[in-house]
Structure formats: C-alpha cells, structure tokens
Amino acid sequence: MSGCILFIDGENFLHKIEEVLKRSGLAKNKTDLALIDFDRLFKQPLKDFRIQRKIFYVAKLHLHPDTKEKSQELIKFQRKLRNNLIKHGFEFVISGNVRAQSVGKKIVFKEKGVDVKIAVDLVSLSCDKKLTTAILCSSDSDLQPAIKEVRERKTEVVYLGFENNPNKGLTYTTNRTILLRNSEIVESYINNQGLRSDELKKSLRSDDLKKNS
Question: CA 146 from chain center: how many Å?
Fold first, then answer.
C-alpha cells in the first residue's frame, strides 16, 4: 500500500531545533530537546497530509574512552529521545555511526551514514510503489540525487525545512517547500516543559528583536 511518509534526519533536525531555542533563550540543557512535543510541532505545518509512517533516523553511538562522560550523556539522551518518539508514533531507525575525532586538542563527534540510509529508503520505497509523497525534514544537500530519482518515478517530495536558513538546493530540487516557523518550535518545546504563556511571549519577543537587530 502506497502512502505519505515523513522522513526526519535526526541529528540535523535536533541541531536546528536547538539553534532556535537557544536564540529564544530557552534551551538550557540539551537533554530537554528529547521531550519536544512532536505532535504539536508538526500538526499545523503538515495538516494537509495524511501521514501513514513517521521515521526518525539517528546514528549509532559508541562509548569513547577519552570522552566517557560525554559519550554516556549522549547515549542517555538518545534513549530518552527514542522513548518520546515512539510514544508519538515514530519509527526510530539507527543507521550509520557517531565517531569521535580529534580536532586539535578537542574531540568532536561526527555522524556518518544516516543520509545514505534515508536515500536508500526513499528510492527503494518509491521503486516498490510504497511511497506516493515523501516529506523530507533534512538540510543535507547530498540527498538531492535521491530526490531527483524518486521524482522521476512520480513520487512527490516535500522539503520540510526551517524558517532559519532553509536549504536552497533542496527547495529547488523538491516539488514544494514547507518551513517550520520559530514560534511553532518554541510552542512545542514550552508545551512539554510546562512553562507559562508569559514565558512563551517573552521568548518570542526576544527572538523577534534578534532577527531585527
């Protein structure tokens, strides 16, 4: 049975969410991102779609001996995120790996393989006629060849981007673009954190000031 599927590049998605919340003075702890109200976030922007599957892609985490505490923190965060996503009806797909790399005196974590998995799923589902509309929430330009391939097979591709700095390449490659507004992100975060409406208004005013400055 063919249908509409939401594909989310997890690391990319969380980075964009954190960016908006920090700008609004809200994200004090990265682990709080695991408790975003996903139903509220997507309800209005995707109201015209009957989504049959929602897939959230992340890379496999490894315990790195030189950053044991940080690795454990990331693993704990991913577990918390997985539980929240499953509660909201998402499939949680682990593909690729997160590897620690030395950059000067610092160790940074790099994700590899998630974009490949998304591209393979897009093409295989389209070829098997199990996909009529793909809603793609990613800012990875490497997905453009896969997008072109599935569009040639008459699959509609919708780019779900962010108000802050949308990817122009994906905008041109896909059939249409929908942008998540900063206010929608803030509201979905505040709703799950139990914060008051006056804090929401204050954060939105702060974000508007920063945009205009």
Answer: 18
Contacts of 146 (CB under 8 A, 6+ apart): 118, 119, 120, 122, 123
Statement: 4-212 belongs to CATH 3.40.50.1010: yes
Q: What are the residue ranges spanned by the domains of the chain?
A: 4-212
DSSP β-bridge partners for residue 134: 5, 157
Give the integer Cα–Cα distance in Å for 185 and 203. 11
pLDDT, tens digit (0-9, with 9 covering 90-100), for 25-46: 876 666 778 878 888 899 999 9
Computed from CA positions of residues 179, 181, 93, 96, in that sequence, does the dihedral angle turn out positive or negative? positive
Q: Which portions of the chain are predicted below pLDDT 70?
A: 1-2, 27-30, 62-67, 97-112, 191-213
pLDDT computed for residue 209 by the predictor:
42
Q: Is the dihedral of CA 104, 78, 93, 190 positive or negative?
A: negative
Average pLDDT, the chain: 83
Q: Is the entire prediction scored with pTM above 0.90?
A: no
